[in-house]
Amino acid sequence: MLKLDAASNMPLFQQIYCQIRADILSGARPEGTRLPSLRAMSKEMQLGKNTIESAYAQLALEGYIAAIPGSGYKVNPIYGLLHQIESNPTVAFSLSGNDHAQKVNQHYRYNFSYENSDGSTFPNTIWRKLTSQILTDDAPASGYSTEMHSYGDAAGYLPLRHQLASYLYRSRGVRCTAEQVVICSGLQPSIMSILRLLQGECNIIALEDPGYHGARAVYECFNTNTIAVPVNGDGLDLAVLVNSSARVAHIAPSHQFPTGVVMPISKRMEILSWAIENESFIIEDDYDSELRYSGRPIPSMQSIDTNGRVIYLGTFSKVLSPGLRMSYMVLPPLLYQRFCEIFSGFQCTVPWLEQAVLTRFMANGLWERHLRKICLQKKKKHDVFVNTVNQLWGERAIIHGHNAGLHILLEFTDGASEKELVSKAALSGIKVYPASNLWKDKALCPKNCLFMGYGMLSESDIVSALKVLKAAWC
Amino acid sequence: MLKLDAASNMPLFQQIYCQIRADILSGARPEGTRLPSLRAMSKEMQLGKNTIESAYAQLALEGYIAAIPGSGYKVNPIYGLLHQIESNPTVAFSLSGNDHAQKVNQHYRYNFSYENSDGSTFPNTIWRKLTSQILTDDAPASGYSTEMHSYGDAAGYLPLRHQLASYLYRSRGVRCTAEQVVICSGLQPSIMSILRLLQGECNIIALEDPGYHGARAVYECFNTNTIAVPVNGDGLDLAVLVNSSARVAHIAPSHQFPTGVVMPISKRMEILSWAIENESFIIEDDYDSELRYSGRPIPSMQSIDTNGRVIYLGTFSKVLSPGLRMSYMVLPPLLYQRFCEIFSGFQCTVPWLEQAVLTRFMANGLWERHLRKICLQKKKKHDVFVNTVNQLWGERAIIHGHNAGLHILLEFTDGASEKELVSKAALSGIKVYPASNLWKDKALCPKNCLFMGYGMLSESDIVSALKVLKAAWC
To answer: What is the distance between the alpha carbons of residues B321 and B302, in angstroms, rounded to a whole number?
Structure first.
């Protein structure tokens, strides 16, 4: 006998469906049992036949009952099967107690984190206006609509790629067509695509040591063979690279991470020679080339590559926002053709709307204006950081990697170890990061360096935080 | 002698830099040559010393020249290296002639494509408003700013994951915490993540045959061993699955693609038993569950999985827009923990802003209102399609997979082959798609079926196009 609740929010046909289903699953209506006819049920429950029929139709659709022509509905064999799968339930409904994702976060007054941005330079108002414009233009009658609601080109929105190709040529000497530019959702997916493009051919990757941990994380996650090549005063150690079996070198020649070294033109040419002779590739990771505070941006290695050995990577994370998850790679012609073959059935993972907004931002001249503004703002922070460090520590701290980017490697010459520095800072509510995290070969890494990012802090916070550190470390 | 052009847009220091660099690269200023002193150059060029110094500093930074203490600047060994790398240039600057990306597109009057959407149901106005609101709220003083401009959780924006967990429970019976929901940039990246999560353990994947070609493309691209399991009248052939060595089954039990079959509860339970006994996993691809035109959405397999064997996949591509590139997966607890360990250094590839807009959209009740509206609109198209086909072809065409989704498998019983149908349609300016594309085992596929998507066409276009086809095929 079904019990219905007319006052419930659940529609009556659904209540009937639920109760009959529960009966079947509990064995109360065994396999082969006939359900009451629509007419009989309708009369008994005092409901319209349609209501009963909706419930029966859903049960039949899901396979709980089967319609027998001329004989109504019969219960299918379910009960026995259910017992098999429910006899050893192993899953608890709630993970709250075991939630790995909720890391315990000590509260810090100041955090010299490198990764994030403080957002004050993000062009909120313009971004909002351009987004509105495009969504207004994106009426079904306009051409935009088709583009926004289609899967699009695996390499991304072509007008954006045109803008980028043009900008990269002007600013970094990168020589490519718009088609060679591939829009990606950040460094990590770019590396995953490159690994697939080079699969079977270039299985051993040389990484700068120290180097960017985010890149190393991807290579290791996907079990790539990597070789850690030490970094000298002018970039990675060429002799080690040449004598290794690496077929790819992932380097940041314009602003080595984290040492800040700029690789001189002679070494760039030697690495290109190596690549040509070995049919190897160079991944040029140009992650913050726009942020150079002294002198002009360094021309890319790609600009002197006449043999298609360089894969050039750039990102909008540092100069716009990491939250956009937008980056790009410029593939040499051979790899671009391979990309078209291999990824032809794929879709670009960056949302069309975001690409369209950025295209307008670049086409309207707002992009380069934004770059100038952001460079000025970051330079001020940089100068405050460097000057304050010099005032507070003088010769007891050596600054590496300044005049560009948003990070510094700070080396202490007075015998302090990174461990002490980190823990004393923490006691005063300041989070600083040991430089050794960035070395793979821990034997080679210095023990007296800190890796300091200042992108998140305001100028006054930088000064305050450094003063607190000075007190904490004395 | 340097030649400067005062009228040029290029700053003077940069002109000096370029000319000296060119001289060095051409060998005109050989290795070891001293550059004129700042004072001498300044006097000769009639320019301020700063201008010269800027040029020299840039050249030194890039390694073209070296500063000799007390002796000015000297040219580094560059010329010889340049010759090595330029002796065999292999790359032409322009790809325009070889551009694979520009496929030749015959112009079709009507296209029964499945992939894209016509955009008329995308909630433009609301999306624009919510985006504006969030960017206005996203002032540096508010909490949002930190979130938008940080790299965020690898699994995505937690408030969105809360909304999804709640919605999925109400609509599909999916039982999970917010943490188990992972936001992804579409089916293909989801599959790539799953392959990494199951690496080494579940190397052979069973795919429905016929099945979704987009999923098969990813598995094949990454050289996964796949087994094509035929699809019967009630879903994939269990006997074939059980007798295979597959450890993962990728299935669409609520609306098999492309046949439309709904897998009955009994078979769902049998597949779950198989998964429990073999410690296998089931990827439940629920790509268009919201679009059901008759009866309610089918409860998910995940809702009856008490052993953590089901990975549930859903997407916003069909019900919002493919251009958003947003989807999600619900990981069983074991795999969620593994995800946290393996991908802890990674970032979610979906832009924060998009996730924040969608969160508000769902939180404000607009999502379920949108679903009802879109379901009605798609149902109208569906009904027009089905009724028109019945009118025009009667028993000569059998419709498979209707009452849900945005596609139909159309089977012709009068002896026509798909090849003929496709080419005759093309001659009349209509693009239709052979169903055999969706079968891996071509021996098993019917030769008389077309795979028709109608999401892109308006109701009147559907009628017109079908009438043209009727004429074309007679």
So the answer is: 25
Mean pLDDT of A204-212: 95
Q: In the CATH scheme, what is the code of domain B123-364?
A: 3.40.640.10
Count of beta carbons in the 10 Å neighbourhood of residue A340? 18
Show residues of chain B in contact with A93, CB under 8 Å: 175, 177
**Is residue B404 pLDDT above 70, yes or no?**
yes
pLDDT tens for B191-225 read 999 999 998 887 899 999 999 999 999 999 988 99
Is B119 close to A304, i.e. CB distance below 8 A?
no
Contact with chain B for residue A91, Cβ under 8 A: yes
User: What is the CATH architecture of B100-114+370-473?
Assistant: Alpha-Beta Complex (3.90)
Rounding to the nearest 10 degrees, give the CA dihedral for residues B453, B459, B464, B469.
20
Element (H, E) at B128: helix B124-137
Q: For residue B306, give how far its alpha carbon lies from the nearest alpha carbon of chain A (Å).
A: 5
pLDDT, residue B445, reads 87
Say what the alpha-carbon torsion angle A379, A384, A389, A394 is, to the nearest 10 degrees. 90
Q: Is A378 on the interface with B (CB under 8 A)?
A: no
Q: Write the DSSP assignment of B7-61 as a string of letters.
A: TSSS-HHHHHHHHHHHHHHHTSS-TTPBPPPHHHHHHHHT--HHHHHHHHHHHHH
CB of A3 within 8 Å of any CB in chain B?
A: no
CATH 3.90.1150.10 range(s) for chain B read 100-114+370-473
Determine the distance in angstroms separating the CA of A307 from the nearest CA of chain B, rounded to an integer.
5
In chain A, the largest separation of any two C-alpha atoms, in whole Å, equals 97
Q: Cβ separation of B96 and A54 shorter than 8 Å?
A: no
A162 in contact with B, Cβ within 8 Å:
no
Give B-chain residues touching A342 at CB under 8 angstroms: 221
Characterize B441-467 residue by residue with b for buried, 16 or more Cβ atoms within 10 angstroms of its Cβ, and e for exposed.
eeeebeebbbbbbbbbbebebbbbbbe
What distance, in Å, lies between the first and last C-alpha atoms of chain A?
Answer: 81
Q: What percentage of residues in chain A have a pLDDT greater than 70?
A: 93
Residues forming beta bridges with residue B207, ordered by sequence position:
B228, B250
Under 8 Å between Cβ of B62 and B54: no
Who's near A103: CB < 8 A, 6+ residues apart? Answer: none
Residue extent(s) of CATH 1.10.10.10 domains in chain A: 12-83
Side chain identity at residue B437, one-letter code: N
ipTM value, please give it.
0.85
Tokens representing residue B399 in the block: 């419709």
Cβ-defined contact of A85 to B273 (cutoff 8 Å): yes
pLDDT in tens, A94-150: 444 334 334 445 688 999 988 777 778 899 999 999 999 998 876 554 455 677 887
Is residue B350 helix, strand or coil?
coil
For domain A12-83, give the CATH number.
1.10.10.10
